[in-house]
Amino acid sequence: MNESLKPFLALADAVIITNEKHQILAVNKTYECITGFPSDLIVGKKASILRTRLTPDETYIGMYESLNSGSPWSGIFTNRKRDNSLWHSSITISPFFIEGNTYYVGVFRELEQLDRGYYLDEQRVSSIQASLLKVLAISCEIRDPGIESHLVRVQQLTELLTERYNERCGLNMPSLELAGFSRSSILHDIGKSAIPEGILYKPGRLADYERTIIEMHTVIGVDIIGKIYSELDDEIFENELSTAKNIILHHHEKWDGTGYPHGLKGTDIPLEARIVSVVDVFDALISKRPYKEKWPISDAMQYLNTNKGKHFDPELVDSFLTLYEEGMLLPESDT
Ligand SMILES: [Fe+2]
Ligand SMILES: [Fe+2]
After folding, report:
1. What NCBIfam families does this protein's entry cite (predicted)?
2. How far is the CA of 236 from the centre of ligand 2 (A)?
3. Which CATH superfamily is domain 3-114 in?
């Protein structure tokens, strides 16, 4: 190791120095104390031996990108100590170019407040929430055998359409909000869990009173989600709850005000509900149901186009059409 890097080892924080192949060249006393690894045990090894799966791959990808371009990088690592316990730290790695060689100096600061529990970055929290919502949505509609694939497709299509609409209209929606729309879209019909099967799956025409009962799945769904989230009682779920409620309550509203339950019109219908309305109808059309065959995608697109400005937000249908033209929509469903 180059002599000029030695002063870094005198820092009070934990320090690790590697070469350009990320082989450990030196660690300081604080590093040895915190991790329990004496330097002679880890010097010469690859720094990746300290990794755990609790640090997401994206963290490493971002780190290598930044370091390979010659820039410093900061982030959060969850590594293992020698006694196998976890060590959460905030680290800054700086590249140094000395006499034709590259060195990386990593300075760690322990995140003491995480002595108990795990550090979870936003992406990981988001994926855990998504899995929980999926389980919830599927268990609410467990009586319908094809429901899982429908819900997953609605979620994927909501993500695609939200992103495309956001780009086309230059809305600059924050990525967390975008992710929230697709995550919550899976819940759109949870209120159907309270509708009697005889009405829900009745082949043929429904009587007026049966239709009224089915339409209640929107308000019942909001009631269910409200109860679940009040149990969670945590402010990180607050935004999530309002998006989910908007989708559940308003996904059957129509652009011209003839939908239910509130007969909202145009942009009075929350955007997330307008988006789910387009993709939910689209996926229902291209899927086989007990009372209908599946439609070809081109016919379903034609249907959306004919009903834009009546049932659907015209801008959203146009955005959806661009996805279709670019071959971004999923293949026809077999269910
Ligand atoms: Fe619905
Ligand atoms: Fe649906």
Report:
1. sensory_box
2. 27
3. PAS domain (3.30.450.20)
